[in-house]
Amino acid sequence: MNIETVGVVGLGNMGLGMAATLARKGFKVIGYDINDARRAAIEAAGISFVPDLTDVLRRADALVFSLPLARDVEAVVTAEGGLLSRTDRKVVVVDTSTSDPGTTRRLAARLEQAGHALLDAPVSGGPSGAAEGTLTMMVGGSEADYALAEPVLSAMSARAPHVGPSGAGNIVKLVNNLLVAAHLVTTGEAMRLSEAAGLSAEEAIKVVNTATGRSAISEVMFPRWILSNSFDSGFAAGLMRKDVRLAMELAAESGADLPLSAHVAQIWATTREAIPDAADFTRMADYRTTNGAK
Ligand code: NAD
What Enzyme Commission number(s) appear in the record (predicted)? Predict the structure, then answer.
């Protein structure tokens, strides 16, 4: 079925850029955010803001969600008068939120019963990737639903591998972000060692980036957001804490024993005072470099 109108629900750091990308690529985009204070920014980006969620859920040919938590996704999927009672066409939901596989599978089954579809399609690439349409998406769901959503997926991403059945996209996203959470801690501590031993983090990171200890954290995040002291990646520490918590819950459900990751999770959970949820998540590396052990 043809997709002309895309409804984007959740127009924050990621969703607004996705909506602008979809509009630029020729879709008619309508948007909704629960926070009315977002309206000015949304309209300034040329996106038509619809103040009633039900309106967006009933008018869109396809939907993109970019919401903080699994419970927000559930609230939108089950909104009264919305998708579950809509019968005029099959609507595919591309849920780009970082969510948990169990909730995703449950909501995908409910939407399927109502004649619709939900793909878990969490993303990597940050607000700049969303605004440029160069995200990496990791997609879970059926082949047929993937094919249905393909024009929307390809408009928003540089790559969007179909990873497996419903929930598979969430699994790989949590695996990825558990690594990011750990790398921020370990790279920060390695820079602490370098400074303590008399070599600046700036000098050390340049060499690490040509050697085997490098990662996206050392190659991208240190120069761009940490050593520059800008801390404006657009990803909040509170959202990273959610991802770490979801990864550890998945480990517990799956019977995977992850002792080092459990310690990393504890570090993220117990540093809320020094790195508040609203702070940029890259603060963690700086904290581990400068005073994390105090
Ligand atoms: P954000 O907080 O900037 O934006 C979320 C938006 O959703 C807010 O504007 C909020 O008002 C809105 N919202 C909350 N509940 C709602 C509801 N029930 N209905 C409608 N709108 C609602 O968060 P973000 O950084 O854009 O992240 C969105 C999702 O993408 C999260 O799941 C996050 O983990 C994930 N993510 C973020 C990044 C990043 O770099 N920021 C990268 C990859 C994945």
Answer: 1.1.-.-
